[in-house]
Write a structure and sequence with these properties.
- This is TetR/AcrR family transcriptional regulator.
- The chain has 11 helices and no strands.
- By secondary structure, the chain is mostly helical.
- The protein has 2 domains: 48 residues, Arc Repressor Mutant, subunit A; 152 residues, Tetracycline Repressor, domain 2 (Orthogonal Bundle), CATH 1.10.357.10.
- It is elongated.
- The protein starts with 7 loop residues before the first helix and ends with a helix.
Length: 213
């Protein structure tokens, strides 16, 4: 890929995402990007101080894109808060599969350790929205025995763990040709099953009505 003319910053981010998707974060270097784009070795430094600076920018972009992706999916699920939260979990894992560069960059420990204010803000907005969605699902009957924070962390640990497993070549080789979507659906039903929650929530009321009849 050779860069000709235009927005070098955008070209660097796009090529960096492609390299990370193919080789992981460890395969990325500013010098390598410059060589692939056909610009001087010093050219990337006009936009990014170093590799971590580029990764932070890509991670921030990833958090913002993830937020739009997951909440678009949850909005399509309708107004039910149980379906809304379940859709958020499904969408997170699917996003990690469809956008591996964003996922790997956002989870990289060096990027997290050196997060700037923009990255912290992008992550914070997602966490606040997720906490609100968790609280709404609890009001509808899900995990009412836990605090909203604990319930959110439980769900987040499950979806992040599943995403990590699906990015693990050793795990993928072990489970064979299983359909990832079927696996995501099955695991997410263990985390939050809207139909089961609704049935459990309405069961006592239904039993009482039957007894009165």
């Amino acid at each position: 890929m050779t860069y000709h003319h235009g927005n070098l910053r955008k070209a660097l981010l796009e090529r960096a995402a492609a390299v990370i998707a193919e080789q992981g974060v460890e395969g990325l270097s500013l010098r390598g990007l410059a060589q692939e784009l056909g610009v001087s070795h010093a050219a990337p430094s006009r936009h990014f101080r170093d590799k971590v600076d580029l990764l932070r920018t890509l991670a921030t972009e990833g958090h913002e894109t993830l937020g739009r992706y997951t909440f678009a999916a949850s909005n399509q699920a309708g107004p039910d808060p149980l379906e809304h939260l379940a859709a958020l979990g499904h969408a997170y894992v699917r996003f990690s599969m469809e956008h591996p560069a964003y996922y790997r960059t956002g989870r990289h420990p060096e990027v997290a350790a050196q997060a700037d204010e923009a990255l912290k803000a992008a992550n914070g907005r997602r966490m606040e929205a997720l906490l609100r969605a968790t609280h709404a699902a609890q009001e509808a009957g899900w995990r009412q025995d836990a605090s909203a924070l604990h319930a959110m962390v439980f769900g987040l640990a499950a979806v992040r763990g599943l995403a990590a497993l699906l990015h693990d070549p050793l795990f993928r080789s072990h489970i064979g040709d299983i359909d990832p979507d079927a696996l995501i659906d099955g695991v997410m039903r263990l985390v939050i099953d809207p139909e089961a929650v609704r049935a459990a929530t309405h069961a006592p009321e239904d039993d009482a009505d039957a007894a009165d009849a």
